[in-house]
């Protein structure tokens, strides 16, 4: 049984993410209702780079540190209304980063298989979700491959 007020709050948070930002209000409520609220204590590993990705985590409160499998650098900080695990929606369904709770963190955990089944059943939902996945991926690549001033890596490779 879901709580409509809780789902509405979670839907608002999901709407702020690149992955879910293009979904309709009713789709956002549906995705929110699919999620399960979880609390991870500081130091908990939510995702391990290279492991089978089954869940998408939307941070509700707290901070996660995320690193690449190559010595976990550069380190990204993931905060409220940001996601870990969007790669669970695309083959080969493996986490791309290791995500560790920097503090106690509250997340909305969403099963990727449920979202993929929903996308298969409704082409419009699937299109909006996959477009959001592409936007999220491009954004993350920009974060990883930019310098401290925010310039894309290519700008200083060419100089």
The CATH architecture can be given as Sandwich
Which class best fits the helix and strand makeup?
alpha+beta
**What is the overall silhouette?**
globular
Domain unit count: 1
Order of helices and strands: HHEEEEEEEEHHH
Distance from first to last alpha carbon: 58 Å
CA-atom Rg in angstroms: 16 Å
- Order of strands, main sheet, comes to 1-8-3-6
CATH fold node name = Jelly Rolls
What is the CATH homologous superfamily assignment? Jelly Rolls
Low-confidence stretches: 154-159
The largest sheet, given as strand count, sense and whether it forms a barrel, is:
4 strands, antiparallel
Q: How much of the sequence is in beta strands?
A: 15-25%
Total number of helices:
5
Number of extended strands = 8
Summarize model confidence as the mean pLDDT: 88
């Amino acid at each position: 049984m879901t709580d409509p007020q809780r789902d509405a709050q979670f839907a608002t948070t999901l709407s702020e993410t690149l992955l879910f930002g293009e979904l309709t209000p009713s789709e956002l409520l549906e995705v929110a209702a699919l999620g399960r609220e979880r609390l991870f204590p500081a130091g908990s590993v939510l995702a391990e780079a290279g492991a089978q990705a089954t869940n998408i985590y939307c941070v509700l409160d707290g901070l996660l540190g995320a690193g690449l499998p190559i010595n976990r650098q550069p380190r990204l900080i993931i905060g409220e209304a940001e996601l870990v695990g969007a790669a669970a929606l695309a083959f080969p369904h493996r986490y791309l980063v290791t995500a560790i709770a920097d503090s106690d963190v509250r997340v909305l955990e969403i099963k990727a298989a449920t979202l993929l089944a929903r996308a298969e059943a409704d082409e419009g939902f699937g299109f909006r979700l996959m477009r959001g996945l592409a936007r999220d991926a491009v954004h993350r690549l920009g974060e990883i491959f930019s310098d401290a001033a925010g310039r894309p890596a290519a700008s200083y490779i060419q100089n």
